Amino acid sequence: MARDAAAASPWLVVIDPQRIFADPASAWASPAFPAAMERIVRLAARFGPERTLVTRWLPTGDRSTAWGDYFRAWPFADVPADDPLYALVEGAAVLSAHPTVDEPTFGKWGPQLAARVGERPHLVLAGVSTDCCVIATALAAADAGVRVTVVTDACAASTPENGQAALHVLGLFGPQIDLVESTGSLPEAATGP
Fold it and tell me: Which domains does the chain show, CATH number per domain?
């Protein structure tokens, strides 16, 4: 019975808590990152390291695709995946007992994440950026039939206006996608084996 409860228990997915999105010197830094990260740490404590996953966006090496155009527009980010820009921020690695889910795409929903969370998952999303990687992950997961909850104040947008626009779009996808605040009613994580 406990095993069935754990299988149905939601997963917290912390999207891309990386230096490139947190460092104020980065062109991609989110001004809301520090406040969002404080809430993410509290959420991760609630879910526990066994039910928390951390993702990283890493650049693709294939510049023959539209990603080549993207990196020409953002040359500061066109560095190897092992560059310190792509490292996790301090404290992010300990949020999960699992290896990071590394993807060269904005959206993190795909075979790797699906294999980690199993069948009929419920994902609780937090992280950066609301208007890029969070929305791309939420929409792809919902389209695949996954229940998705986005913790709005545990997400950091590129700008407040872009964050509001992204939340408006995500709000159009209920009931597949729920929007909640960290102090609101969240799906309960399993607390035992």
Answer: 2-180 (3.40.50.850)
Q: How far is CA 115 from CA 21, 109, 138, 189, in A?
A: 26, 10, 17, 19
Q: What is the mean pLDDT of residues 18-38?
A: 97
- The secondary structure of residue 6, as a DSSP letter, is H
3-state secondary structure of 101: strand
Interval 160-176: pLDDT, tens: 999 999 999 999 999 99
Q: In terms of pTM, does the model score above 0.70?
A: yes
Q: CB burial class (10 A; 0-12, 13-18, 19+) of residue 86?
A: buried
Burial of 111 (0-12, 13-18, 19+ CB in 10 A): exposed
From CA 86, how far away is CA 24, in angstroms rounded? Answer: 14
Question: Could you tell me which of 140, 44, 122 has the C-alpha nearest to residue 88?
Answer: 44
